[in-house]
């Protein structure tokens, strides 16, 4: 199986590449990644060159994508601009990469009859009230809030249209918030860990009551692999691991695990349009494909993630100052 992984030098993509090469000894992986500020060669170090290849390029480059797709048995499409805060400062790369780029991939898989798995987000469904007993299902209407989530919603619609109109073989997954190694320090959990390692204060947007549904990235990888291998074309699978926690709870657990006082953080400006709560109902994935998460103890997963950032300063240090400078400009 030759798998083309777009965005494979990013957080979730690189974890997926390591996962596939470990779990499927017969698989070969080609990563196509533009190495934007979020992509990092160092996340792919140590892989067997006989089974792995990195092509630095843009998913909007039609001839390049065509050539790489023609040489593949399947495409797993992670490449995206992924950070909500950045989409509020400048939406344009989100429109280009997330929408136009997905259309380029779709046209190539259509031409070559190659199967596609499109990786998307639970944010396409908007948000839930804190006391709403329901969770997102595949029947929840799309109601994205930010330019990022609207661009991902658009990409999902394109995939469904290509399946229905052109008979493209494709699956979609919408996953909740990931945590684990190799996550950019702009994101909530690594930002707080690396701030504390630097002797800086942790930063909570608004009141901190917003809820996210956390899943370890290794569980996201195993779910994507299960869908790629056994999912039904045309179907959408929601990926989640029953990990709902408020931002304040997560932050206080990080503070406790890192030996700080529970109130040693500051409230900073809230994100405009900040989604209140995400929650995933992953029943289809569990019932149809028998998938189960392995990282069910959040405290343990978070402690391991903190250790990873403590032990891998060389990986995150080069991106830290520029990230914090961007946040300072918007009062966060
Ligand atoms: P990331 O920002 O860490 O990585 C994105 C990768 O895509 C980077 O390596 C970047 O260089 C690459 N890229 C960006 N534009 C490109 C282009 N035009 N051509 C080629 N490569 C390009 O993102 P992530 O957090 O790993 O997210 C990966 C995917 O998973 C995204 O599609 C995202 O929407 C989705 N997702 C993320 C989460 C999460 O919690 N982070 C949850 C659900 C779904
Ligand atoms: O739900 C899936 C989505 O999860 C993915 O589609 C996105 O790609 C991914 O970035 C993530 O989006 P969020 O906006 O939820 O993640 P982020 O890490 O940016 O923020 C998580 C929560 O923490 C959110 O409520 C905002 C808050 N926050 C974030 C930062 C960076 C803070 O309170 N302080 C911070 O410093």
Task: Outline the structure in words.
The strands form 4 sheets. The protein has a 7-stranded parallel beta sheet, sandwiched between helices. A two-stranded parallel ribbon has the order 7-10. Strands 8-13 form a two-stranded parallel sheet. The longest helix has 21 residues, at 92-112. It is α/β, with parallel strands linked by helices and 332 residues long. The model has no long low-confidence stretch (mean pLDDT 98). The protein has 11 helices and 13 strands. It binds nicotinamide-adenine-dinucleotide and 2'deoxy-thymidine-5'-diphospho-alpha-D-glucose. The site of 2'deoxy-thymidine-5'-diphospho-alpha-D-glucose (DAU) has 19 residues, from α6 and β8.
What ions, cofactors and ligands are bound? nicotinamide-adenine-dinucleotide, 2'deoxy-thymidine-5'-diphospho-alpha-D-glucose
Count of discrete alpha- or pi-helical segments spanning 4 or more residues: 11
Residue-averaged pLDDT, rounded? 98
Order of helices and strands: EHEEHEHHEHEEHEEEHEEHEHHH
Number of beta-strand segments: 13
Major pleated sheet: 7 strands, parallel
Helix content: 40-55%
What does the oligomeric state look like here?
single chain
How far is the N terminus from the C terminus? 45 Å
- Morphology call: globular
Low-confidence stretches: none
Roughly how many Å is the radius of gyration?
19 Å
% residues in beta strands: 15-25%
Strand order of the largest sheet: 3-2-1-4-5-6-11
Q: Which structural class matches the secondary elements?
A: alpha/beta
